[in-house]
Q: What sequence folds into this?
């Protein structure tokens, strides 16, 4: 038997192997940082955030000049949340993942190398040489659907980017809502604490007067009951304020103990007139980034349907071969491998992709219907709150006049203290209700802006 080397064959195989390995990526471990280190992460660099806030480029959020010296406004909170929110930092990483898929979709298929060597042996192998067969080929079937794959990956990447921007918008609006809530809770607490301060002083005065016989137990009991009720309300509002502050700190990527003063600009607190439902619904259909992302997702699915249709064509590989037989006769030729689509014409995949396309169309229509319903509901809530606020303010003006008159009557002894305290309690409850209604309306405006994907004021 002859076992000599086959000249040229090892050289070709070695060259191809080296060429393939030259562009290979290498692995390097990237362990997570210790949990204790992450838990003690400091606040973001505010100076850097101030600069970034002025230079922000976003389809829905305008850049602002951040000045925390006069408090944190809703607009400032919205921009800072986009820049520093920890969850958004992770969400933005999905762009790199999808971009890698776009790169993969455009790559050409690798060629393949086949080799075979035969060693003649036995009684009749004298005078023969080692036979070999070397072939180099490429599967060109994947080239047929390459354009469709690239189109799909491109649309998917655009949809992902719009989804990221929409998530940023929602986070920004959540920060805006937290600032509005904090500012209004402070107003409600100031009102409650002011009334509690009055009741506390009144109780002290009446208790001293009761000791001297100038006040009754009933008088003291009336104001003591009112004071305890106010303390309960204060405790409830204080817990709500702490929860809102914690929520805001989380959205802004700040340490839990941070305390930023929330402020509301006068023009925002005034609640300008809204556009009509039809106008806001039309605006939402053109400005909501999630709807645009769904449109691009549908476009990507169209490309998948096209890929499935193209994949029904037979598989095709081409290449060339170099051979030498045992008689030392050399051959050079080519080959074609063609699959015969007799039983499987990719009909199952085609039907599946078409069904998915239909589902995406219906999901898009359902999302539009939900947007219209949300906009209509929020506009109607705003209208109802506007009327309730007006009613509360009229009631406050009327009760304030009665309370002032009865207070003078109590001082002169012409009015029973119980009657006056009843009016005063109703006046306070109405004032607190008015502030609560204003808070609900402001929060509803933020929700409406979120649903529309932009401004909601009536265009002059």
A:
């Amino acid at each position: 038997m002859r076992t000599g080397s086959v000249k040229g064959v090892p050289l070709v195989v070695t060259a191809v192997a080296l060429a393939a390995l030259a562009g290979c990526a290498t692995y390097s471990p990237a362990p997570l940082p210790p949990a204790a280190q992450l838990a003690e992460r400091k606040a973001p660099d505010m100076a850097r955030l101030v600069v970034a806030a002025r230079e922000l480029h976003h389809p829905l959020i305008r850049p602002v000049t951040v000045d925390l010296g006069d408090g944190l406004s809703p607009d400032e909170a919205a921009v800072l949340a986009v820049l520093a929110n920890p969850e958004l930092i992770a969400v933005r990483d999905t762009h790199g993942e999808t971009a890698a898929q776009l790169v993969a979709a455009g790559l050409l298929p690798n060629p393949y190398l086949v080799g075979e060597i035969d060693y003649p042996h036995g009684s009749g192998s004298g005078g023969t040489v080692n036979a070999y067969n070397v072939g180099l080929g490429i599967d060109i079937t994947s080239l047929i659907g390459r354009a469709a794959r690239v189109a799909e990956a491109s649309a998917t990447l655009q949809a992902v980017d719009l989804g990221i921007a929409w998530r940023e918008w929602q986070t920004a609006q959540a920060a805006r809502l937290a600032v509005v809530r904090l500012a209004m809770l402070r107003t409600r607490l100031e009102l409650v604490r002011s009334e509690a301060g009055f009741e506390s002083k009144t109780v002290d005065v009446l208790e001293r007067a009761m000791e001297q016989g100038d006040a009754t137990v009933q008088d003291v009991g009336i104001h003591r009951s009112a004071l305890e009720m106010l303390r309960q309300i204060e405790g409830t509002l204080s817990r709500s304020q702490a929860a809102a502050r914690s929520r805001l700190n989380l959205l802004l990527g700040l340490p839990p103990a941070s305390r930023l003063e929330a402020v509301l600009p006068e023009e925002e607190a005034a609640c300008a007139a809204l556009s009509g439902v039809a106008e806001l619904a039309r605006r939402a259909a053109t400005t909501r980034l999630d709807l645009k992302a769904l449109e691009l997702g549908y476009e990507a699915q169209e490309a998948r349907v096209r890929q499935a249709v193209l994949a029904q064509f037979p598989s095709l590989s081409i290449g060339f071969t170099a051979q030498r037989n045992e008689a030392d006769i050399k051959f050079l030729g080519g080959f074609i491998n063609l699959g015969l689509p007799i039983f499987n014409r990719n009909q199952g995949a085609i039907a599946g992709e078409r069904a998915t396309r239909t589902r995406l169309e219906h999901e898009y229509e359902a999302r539009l219907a939900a947007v219209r319903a949300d906009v209509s509901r929020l506009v109607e809530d705003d209208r109802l709150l506007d009327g309730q606020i007006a009613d509360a303010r009229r009631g406050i003006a009327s009760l304030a006049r009665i309370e002032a008159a009865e207070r003078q009557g109590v001082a002169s002894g012409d009015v029973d203290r119980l009657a006056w305290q009843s009016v005063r309690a109703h006046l306070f409850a109405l004032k607190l209700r008015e502030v609560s209604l204003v808070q609900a309306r402001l929060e509803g405006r933020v929700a409406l802006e979120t649903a529309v994907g932009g401004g909601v004021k009536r265009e002059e």
